[in-house]
Amino acid sequence: MSDARSAILARMRASLGQRAEDAARRAAVADRLQRAPRGIVPQRGQLDPAARTELFCKMAEAVQASVARVASAAAVPGEVSAYLKTHNLPARVRMGADARLAAMPWAGEPHLEIASGRAEGSDLATVSHAIGGVAETGTLVLTAGSDNPTTLNFLPEHHIAVVRESDLVGDYESIWDRLRQIHGKGVMPRTVNMITGPSRSADIEQTLLLGAHGPRALHIIVVAD
Amino acid sequence: MHITSPAFKDNARAALDDDALQRALGNVRSGFIGKRAKAAAALPEFEQLRDAARDIKDHVLAHLDLYLEAYADKVEASGGHVHWAQDAEDARRIILGICEAKKARTVTKGKSMITEEIGLNAFLEEHAVTPVETDLGEYIIQLRGEHPSHIIAPAVHVNKDQVEEDFRRVHTHLDPARNLEEPTTLLSEARAVLRDKYFQADIGITGANFLVAETGSSIIVTNEGNGDLTQILPKTHIVVASVEKVVPTLEDMSQILRVLARSATGQDMSVYTTLSTGPKRPEDPDGPEDYHVVLLDNGRSAMLGSEFQEMLRCIRCGACMNHCPVYHAVGGHAYGWVYPGPMGAVLTPSLIGVDQAGHLPNASTFCGRCESVCPMRIPLPKMMRHWREREFSRNLNPAAARYGLGLWAFFAKRPAVYHAAMRLAIGTLSRLGRRSGRFASLPFAGGWTRFRDLPAPQGATFQAQWAKKRKSA
Ligand code: SF4
């Protein structure tokens, strides 16, 4: 209701002792939105590429994700099969229409069944491609779309996420830069997921348990390129 | 929600006598403090980030009207709807309106303190809409017909055996002979039961940790993933957020994110930080078709420009209560409304009135631990003192306190009389308590000695010792 909107905004201005048309205030707000200053960025992630990858893997493992590093995109299907086998899972995954995934040699894994589209409640394992990873905290970043439907990240028991080594960055801010490059300033994909380890809860007597509502396991495949 | 803050003293007394609660509170005392300290120590920039986080929110609050306008424009540009609610009643009416338009029968809910603040669940139930809490802790307390006792660990007052009892009572479709000894089996059971609910729900309601003005995004930060299933599976997503949640940019959000989880649970980062912007796009195979944001004021605009403005920096991390000796002793329910602990002691009187919540700012030892850990550097003790002053000037203090202060004033103005009285009192108490050095009970001090001993005074008065030291120096 626009009445409520004007009433709330008018009350705020009165409390702050400000007038709506104050040009200096408007300029301050416009400037900050435009410049998006970075603030304090931790040194921790500011490393050369090799050390950054090491840190990303270490931080992800520290939050109970498992990490496999493979030499090239061609090795991803084999790694997916191997993961399913070691975890006694059926040879079946679901994935979206991501072009990078589609270009991988899945035919080399003839037993692996690949379903496509958004996840269903019964999916045990899914594969999605991240747009990047943040070494600072071992955080994956995934964006919504037909390439990588968001449900793939939350519904399965095992979520396998592929990320290119060259897409690993030191800090969250570098991810925002990249999103602005892809989508334009101030425009976002419908959903951006920052994922740091598998789902967990400590709601029963503050005991940490994995696999609350989201995946019980997060397996990250880091692809050298 | 029925407000019991006026009965804080009785609530606190009952809490101290509640053995199950005292057992559960042990988990707060032992768990959170060490984890936060470790996470903070592991990040050299942590203290600088606290300053940065504080400055960002101060800047936002000084320009709150303008950032909200910018945010609302962006939400609408991305195809979402923004609703402005002046108070709790407005917000409930708006949400029910959306439920009715969508003919919704069940709604799933992510964890949201704001929906507690507006008493949403009871209201929806009265209007034939069934709310289902999906955060494990929230689900447990919904089954128990209770309210959260902690802002990030809502069921921290409940023990495992109580959860088991509740699950057996409610999940009657499952084998009564099943083994629920282990916390993992309880978790799996909740996971399975709630899975179906996500798919059945017509609407998902979540709160927001941040609203980003630059992009029109709402952000939730969770560990379980329940908030995400709540907001991507149903056809409609409603975000309910209070006005001060807005931040300018993604960079500003990142600054505050870096202190949020570390202060709350000692994680570097919570598992899921999700940014949602508008409804799903034509090419999206999943996500909601409709996206609504309800912006709640409910007294906050009046806090701007007042001595309580800084409280609006709060990011609901819970560190202040995790470190509070009063919270450790009595738990969250004693505070009698939605927000417990030091942040509740400041915020509750602002939102529901000091005449209802006047006891809360007194529930403090002024030890200052809350302020020392608050990531947003909110001067909580100072603000509790402001409330005490207001309460006193409005004559809201109980007669005993006013009488006591009057008595103290009499002595303070007459130092000679004070010294004589002190010498007499200390002499008497130390003679009486000579044996053990403390009192397990004392006439007129039962309120103190019931739950702790009073040390017997040792030696002369402070002023006598001071005089002696100076002479010998
Ligand atoms: S007052 Fe500070 S410590 Fe307490 S919940 Fe708010 S931000 Fe956290």
For the biggest β-sheet of chain A, the strand order reads: 1-12-7-4-2-3
Share of β-strand residues of chain A? 15-25%
Order of helices and strands of chain A: HHHEHEHEEEEEEHEEEE
User: How many strand elements of chain B?
Assistant: 12
Count helical runs of chain A: 6
The largest β sheet of chain A comes out as: 6 strands, parallel
The greatest inter-chain interface is formed by: A-B, 81 and 102 residues
What are the distinct ligands in this entry?
Answer: iron/sulfur cluster
The SS-based structural class of chain B is: alpha/beta
- List the uncertain runs of chain A: none
Outline type of chain A:
elongated
Protein name (chain B): Iron-sulfur cluster-binding protein
Organism (chain B): Stappia taiwanensis
GO molecular function, one term (chain B): 4 iron, 4 sulfur cluster binding
Keywords (chain B): 4Fe-4S, Iron, Iron-sulfur, Metal-binding
Features:
heterodimer, A: 225 residues, alpha/beta, Rossmann fold, B: 473 residues, 3 domains, 6-stranded parallel sheet, 4-stranded mixed sheet, 23 helices, 12 strands, 52% helix, binds iron/sulfur cluster, LUD_dom (chain B)
What can you see in these coordinates?
The complex is a heterodimer of chains A (225) and B (473). Chain A is 31% helix and 23% strand. Chain A is an alpha/beta fold and 225 residues long. In chain A, the strands form 3 sheets. A 6-stranded parallel β-sheet of chain A has the order 1-12-7-4-2-3, with helices on both faces. In chain A, strands 8-5-6-9 form a 4-stranded mixed β-sheet. Chain A has a two-stranded antiparallel sheet with strand order 10-11. In chain A, strand 2, helix 5 and strand 3 (113-116) form a beta-alpha-beta unit. Chain A is elongated and about 70 Å long. With 473 residues, chain B is α/β, with parallel strands linked by helices. In chain B, the strands form 3 sheets. Chain B has a 6-stranded parallel β-sheet, sandwiched between helices. In chain B, strands 8-5-6-9 form a 4-stranded mixed β-sheet. A two-stranded antiparallel ribbon of chain B has the order 11-12. Strand 9 of chain A pairs antiparallel with strand 9 of chain B. The site of iron/sulfur cluster has 12 residues of chain B, from helix 14. Chain A: It holds the Pfam family LUD_dom. Chain A: This is Lactate utilization protein. Chain A: Residues 128-223 form the LUD domain. Chain B: Keywords: 4Fe-4S, Iron, Iron-sulfur, Metal-binding.
